[in-house]
Amino acid sequence: MERNVSSQQIPGSPGNPIPLPKEKKLLHSYYAGARLPSPMGGQLDVLGVREGEGGAGKVLLECNVSSLRFVLAIPKATRTEKAKVKEAMDAGDELTCPRHGEYQRLSKSGKNWVCALCGVSYGKSG
Fold first, then answer.
1. Which pLDDT tens digit goes with each residue over 46-82?
2. How confident is the model at residue 113 (pLDDT cuts 50, 70, 90)?
3. Are 84 and 100 spatial neighbours (Cβ–Cβ below 8 Å)?
4. How many CA atoms lie within 13 A of 82 on its CB side?
5. 3-state secondary structure of 88
6. Measured by CB atoms within 10 angstroms of the end CB, which terminus of the chain is less buried, N or C?
């Protein structure tokens, strides 16, 4: 018996997460470490963080009520944020994420300094 499988994936499935709206309030809540409300009710659980294209980041989330998958697009670093990281690098200080604060260190991913919590690239290593 053959199953008729569609070539398109269902929205909200693991391979096709639903994009969350780009709201500053939502991003600020995420940067502060708060649990995000799900559009379906309940809360969103973080499944993973990925580096996006052009230095932006992506946070993969799952609703704890409906099990639908969502993606939160994190904007790329601003010039001011990159300059702040470069100053810290030149001074030999610990490199921290300008959005998450002093408790979140940046880590190397290839040649880039990236925040593990938002996936944003803040500059290239020396």
1. 999 998 888 999 999 999 999 899 999 999 999 999 9
2. very high
3. no
4. 14
5. helix
6. N
Cβ neighbours, 10 Å, residue 29: 14
Characterize the bridge pairing of strands 18-19 and 69-74: parallel
CA distance 29 to 60: 15
Task: Find tokens 């969103």 and name the residue.
Answer: 44
Positions of E strands within 1-126: 18-19, 36-37, 43-51, 57-63, 69-74, 106-109, 112-115, 121-124
Q: Cβ(44)–Cβ(35) under 8 Å? A: yes
Residue 125 predicted with pLDDT over 60 = yes
Query: What is the spatial distance between Cα 106 and Cα 125, in angstroms, rounded to a whole number?
Result: 11
pLDDT band at 6 (very low <50, low <70, confident <90, very high): low
- Find out whether 13 and 19 touch, Cβ atoms under 8 Å: no
Q: What CA–CA distance (Å, rounded) separates 15 from 32?
A: 28
| pLDDT reading at 11 higher than 60 | yes
Q: Residue 82 has which token pair? A: 């990159």
